[in-house]
């Protein structure tokens, strides 16, 4: 008999994948925060780290009720996304350009999570797991809000990254105080 035979099995497998994804993110987000320069972005990563711990905790609650273990699966997609994020951290780039790259990497992560939570929420609804639906909905909302905040942050940071380095130096000559305040 196959290991996965019904929707509940699919649900548990997918929840394990998400749990692995969240665990990997708990390790990666502090590195993203450290690599970022814009205070808004640094704060955003730090806030989302706290939320992410909550996401893992909600999944643990769901597993407990299902009498299943959350471990035993590695989310390879998140592993890849985080690898790309690490490359971004290492990239030889200006501060503004790096912030832009970090936002692009982070939004890929959020979209992946939004897709994953959307699926398991639907499974939970069909399976009549009402408590889980509520918990998954809370996480899904936070992932969507994070994605929106990243879009907002990108609007100003992208504009800054659009300035060439020469222009930036010129600006710094004209207004050394303002340039200094950015750090
Ligand atoms: Fe999450
Ligand atoms: Fe997230």
Structure overview:
The chain is an all-alpha fold and 183 residues long. Helix content is 83%, strand content 0%. The chain contains seven helices and no strands. It has helices spanning 7-35, 39-66, 76-90, 95-126, 130-161, 165-174, 176-181. α1 (7-35) runs antiparallel to α2 (39-66). The model is unreliable at 177-183 (pLDDT under 50). Bound molecules: fe (ii) ion (FE2) (2 copies). The site of one fe (ii) ion (FE2) has 6 residues, from α2, α4 and α5.
Question: What keyword list fits this structure?
Answer:
single chain; about 180 residues; mainly alpha; about 0% strand; disordered C terminus
End-to-end C-alpha gap: 60 Å
Order of helices and strands: HHHHHHH
* Rounded average pLDDT: 92
Proportion of helical residues: over 70%
Q: Tally the helices: what do you get? A: 7
Indicate the overall shape.
Answer: elongated
- Main β-sheet, in a few words? none
Q: Spans of 5+ residues with little confidence (pLDDT < 50)?
A: 177-183
Provide the list of bound ligands, each named once: fe (ii) ion
Structural class: mainly alpha
Oligomer: single chain
Radius of gyration over all CA atoms, rounded: 19 Å
Residues in β-strands, percent: under 5%
Number of strands: 0
Question: TL;DR?
Answer:
The chain contains seven helices and no strands. The protein has helices at 7-35, 39-66, 76-90, 95-126, 130-161, 165-174, 176-181.
How do the helices and strands line up, and which of them pair or pack?
Elements: H1 7-35, H2 39-66, H3 76-90, H4 95-126, H5 130-161, H6 165-174, H7 176-181
Helix pairs in contact: 1-2, 1-3, 1-4, 2-5, 3-4, 4-5
The protein binds fe (ii) ion (FE2) (2 copies).
């Amino acid at each position: 008999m196959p290991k996965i035979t019904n929707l509940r099995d699919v649900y548990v497998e997918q929840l394990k994948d998400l749990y692995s994804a969240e665990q990997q993110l708990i390790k990666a987000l502090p590195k993203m925060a450290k690599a970022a320069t814009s205070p808004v972005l640094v704060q955003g990563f730090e806030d989302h780290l706290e939320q992410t711990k909550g996401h893992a905790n909600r999944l643990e609650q769901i597993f407990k009720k299902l009498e299943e273990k959350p471990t035993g699966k590695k989310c390879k997609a998140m592993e890849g996304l985080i690898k790309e994020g690490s490359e971004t951290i290492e990239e030889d780039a200006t501060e503004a350009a790096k912030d832009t790259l970090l936002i692009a990497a982070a939004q890929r992560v959020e979209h992946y999570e939004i897709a994953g939570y959307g699926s398991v929420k639907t499974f939970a609804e069909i399976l009549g797991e009402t408590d889980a639906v509520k918990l998954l909905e809370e996480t899904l909302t936070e992932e969507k809000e994070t994605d929106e905040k990243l879009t907002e942050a990108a609007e100003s940071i992208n504009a800054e990254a659009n300035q060439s380095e020469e222009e930036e130096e010129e600006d710094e000559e004209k207004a050394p105080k303002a340039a200094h305040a950015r750090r």
